[in-house]
Design brief:
It contains one helix and 45 strands. It has 755 residues and is mainly beta. The chain is globular.
């Protein structure tokens, strides 16, 4: 789903097997290998009906594969139950059918929920399709036919970046001894090179949540190889696929009525404004099977899903928020790089935007152009950064090029530019990822920046005490250039892995189209792990790892150094425990040196039942009170608690809270802040749902209430009816009263021409 990034990563590369020996029933069983992992898909005489049952006669024409291997918790051993997959295609679609046999269908975990919302909590099947070495798509379906999709980065059993949404169809049915699923993937929803025949890499996957998280794969996975892409099977389509040049139009209409306080701090001054509205349109043009043009005029970026609350007390750096807007999320994999030089939320509210993504041969390209109406900044310094909002208009241009080289490797170029009233931010550089000798990789990036600040201190007045070199912190028109570089080396394998990294950002490096919340730093570190796959008794895996790092300023002066050992234990029943300790032998903040900073903590999470899941995270220690004068140490304690209840397949509720305490050396309380979120959701049908989000932040006594009725026929054709209410706990006699309100109704519908 757009907006929310979801990740399920079973990191098989960092697992070691003390493998269970095969039982007597496994003696004559062996995982697929060699020619068994090569499929030539047949052309079907007609399109199967996608209703969740593989009873159409046309499925008899499909090729059938089976002999899945259990890859978690066992490594390439015979699964407890059988799985079969059927594959075929026609002029428009690739069709995949799954038959998932079960020993007891009552134990199947499945919820009727919104798209993408079942990951990590339901049984599911999946298809990973790699149309090139740097472009993978993952399509998932649970036993109720709920869909999930995203980019597959080719690491681990399932590694999904849920920022990708596309138009495809699926259905599933639970039967007496199995459940079946059908998937129809339009070729126009994939990008691939034009050729007389197609050769893709493919993986067929199945997840069963029982006493363990059982993961089955058609292509065996070795824990000694960190890449699942290189272990995928081969899918051939022995003819040219013709994808018509379609144009998609996604107009929207939103009507709303706002209300707010006319006088700040006076609840009796609440005024309701006249109803208003907004219209806009987003479009997509398929230039070729591998190249897509997206555009938007007055796109609707109203947040149907709110950002998760974050605690921002006793922190000196700007907070990061994930992208949730569909226009920027699709194709976002192209724009990633080791340094966050591209952060699309830096384009806040564009009047118009244009995006081109795709691939020409072995070269991936991406371009974003946007004219923004309300421009934001993240202004970074050595020990502080500031989020700044404005009503300034800006023009942004972002270019990204990546060239595939060797095997699962690339070199890339990146350039960004943002112009505002004579001020500008320019960034350009090169980066790359080189994988070699199966288990080793090198990643690097070098960027240069040229910056001219706005000549307007009303946007950001800065602070007299905050300077860098010969420059002030205010927006007073200064011009400077900067540099950033990063280099990392990693080894990942079954028993042992190590990574070494170094990063440096000059005091004058700025990237307004990125998220750089700190500069003037030169950091280096090493991480190493040992992993043991036990599969005995209540234990599945044991892993220990340690980080050692040194952080300094760009001139090489020490800021801090730390030692960070961790121990992780995977139990049966999807229950996981992690313990850690972090020691800072020396820390210098400002001009004050501290020698006794430390923290310790742990996380316990579980998903042992289809009715219940949750976690508790806790840490405590001694840290800096950054806003004390003079700076001082204090004792802190921090806890996070999450609980999700699924009493029925259609209803679920989740509770999440995070609390932070800080006491000074005298034992006096400095901070006690809690943020809380509750979500209640009821799914009437696959497409119709009702949810209520409630959020509270004790630091500013704010309460948010966000009810929403959704009808989502596809990720693009939707109808919403909802409201947003922001409240504040005023002094008596007012108590909790509304400070702002919006009631809205939104409708958008996808039109397709030329297909």
């Amino acid at each position: 789903m757009g907006g929310v990034t979801v990740s399920l990563l079973i990191f098989l590369a960092s697992s070691i097997g003390v493998l269970d020996s095969l039982s007597e029933n496994d003696v004559n069983w062996a995982p697929n290998s060699g020619s068994q992992l090569v499929i030539t898909a047949p052309r079907l005489s007609e399109s199967p009906r996608i209703d969740g049952l593989l009873d159409d006669a046309v499925w008899q024409e499909a090729i059938r594969v089976s002999n899945f291997a259990e890859v978690n918790p066992g490594e390439n051993v015979k699964p407890e139950v059988k799985t079969e997959v059927l594959i075929g295609y026609d002029d428009r679609n690739l069709y995949v059918g799954f038959i998932c046999y079960e020993s007891d269908v009552e134990k199947i975990r499945a919820t009727l929920t919104k798209r993408d919302a079942f990951l990590m909590s339901d049984d599911c099947i999946g298809v990973s399709i790699y149309t090139s070495e740097d472009k993978g798509y993952l399509f998932l379906v649970n036993p109720y036919g709920i869909q999930g999709d995203g980019y597959d980065h080719g690491e681990g059993f399932i590694s999904i970046d849920a920022s990708f949404d596309t138009d495809w169809d699926a259905a599933a049915k639970i039967l007496s001894d199995r459940w079946e699923a059908e998937i129809s993937i339009p070729f126009k929803s994939l990008t691939f090179p034009r050729a007389r025949e197609q050769h893709w890499r493919v993986r067929f996957l199945r997840v069963r949540l029982r006493e363990s998280m059982f993961c089955y794969s058609w292509s065996p996975l070795s824990r000694d190889i960190p890449s699942s892409l290189s272990q995928a099977g081969h899918l051939w389509i022995k003819e040219e696929i013709f994808v018509k040049r379609t144009q998609e139009f996604l107009p929207y209409l939103i009507g709303f009525q706002n209300g707010s306080l006319a006088e700040q701090g006076n609840p009796e001054s609440f005024e309701t404004q006249s109803p208003d509205g907004r219209i806009g349109v987003t479009g997509k043009y398929r230039i070729s099977p591998a190249l897509t043009l997206d555009w938007a005029v007055k796109p609707d970026f109203a947040q149907i899903e709110t950002d998760a609350p974050q605690i921002d007390v006793n922190t000196t750096f700007a907070l990061y928020y994930y992208e949730k807007r569909p226009l920027f999320m699709e194709g976002s994999d192209i724009f990633g790089s080791p340094v966050r030089a591209i952060y699309t939320r830096s384009v806040n509210d564009p009047v118009a935007a244009l995006k081109v993504t795709g691939k020409l041969g072995k070269t991936s390209i991406g371009y974003i152009g946007a004219y923004d109406e309300y421009t934001p900044w993240v202004v970074p310094f050595k020990e502080y950064s500031f989020s700044v909002a404005s009503e300034k208009r800006s023009l942004s241009n972002i270019i990204r090029v990546r060239r595939s080289i060797l095997k699962e490797s690339y070199v890339g170029l990146l350039a960004t530019s943002r112009d505002i009233d004579g001020s500008f931010s320019r960034v350009a550089g090169v980066d790359g990822y080189i994988r070699f000798l199966q288990n080793y990789s090198i990643e690097f990036q070098i960027l240069g920046s040229l910056y001219r600040e706005p000549s307007d201190t009303s946007i950001f007045p800065g602070y007299e005490w905050l300077e860098f070199g010969d420059y002030t912190s205010a927006f007073d028109g200064e011009e400077f250039d900067g540099l950033v570089y990063t280099l990392g080396f990693a080894r990942r394998a079954r028993y042992w892995g190590v990574s070494v990294w170094h990063e440096a950002l000059s005091p004058t490096f700025r990237a307004d189209n990125g998220f750089i919340n700190r500069n003037d730093c030169k950091d280096a570190g090493i991480t190493s792990y040992l992993s043991f796959y036990i599969n005995r008794g209540i234990f599945e895996r044991l892993e220990s790892d340690i980080d050692i790092a040194r952080k300094g300023d760009y001139a090489g002066n020490l800021m801090n150094e730390y030692l960070y050992p961790r121990l992780s234990i995977d139990f049966i029943q999807q229950t996981y425990l992690t313990l850690w300790y972090m020691l800072f032998p020396s820390t210098i903040w400002g001009e004050t040196e501290f020698n006794d900073i430390w923290k310790a903590g742990g996380t316990l999470s579980t998903n042992f039942s289809k009715f219940f899941s949750g976690y508790i995270w806790y840490q405590f220690g001694k840290g800096i009170n950054y806003y004390a004068s003079p700076l001082d140490l204090g004792d802190f304690s921090e806890t996070s608690l999450s609980l999700t209840l699924n009493p029925t397949p259609k209803f679920n509720t989740s509770f999440w809270s995070h609390r932070y305490w800080l006491w000074d050396d005298a034992g006096e309380e400095v901070y006690d802040v809690t943020v809380f979120e509750n979500r209640i959701a009821y799914q009437f049908t696959k497409y119709l749902s009702l949810r209520l989000i409630t959020q509270y932040n004790s630091s500013d006594k704010s309460l948010g209430v966000y009810p929403l009725m959704s009808f989502e026929l596809t990720p693009f054709t939707v109808f919403y009816l909802g409201s947003n209410h922001n409240l504040y706990d005023f002094e008596e006699p007012y108590g909790i009263s509304e400070t702002s309100r919006q009631i809205f109704l939104k409708f958008q519908y996808m039109f397709v021409t030329g297909g």
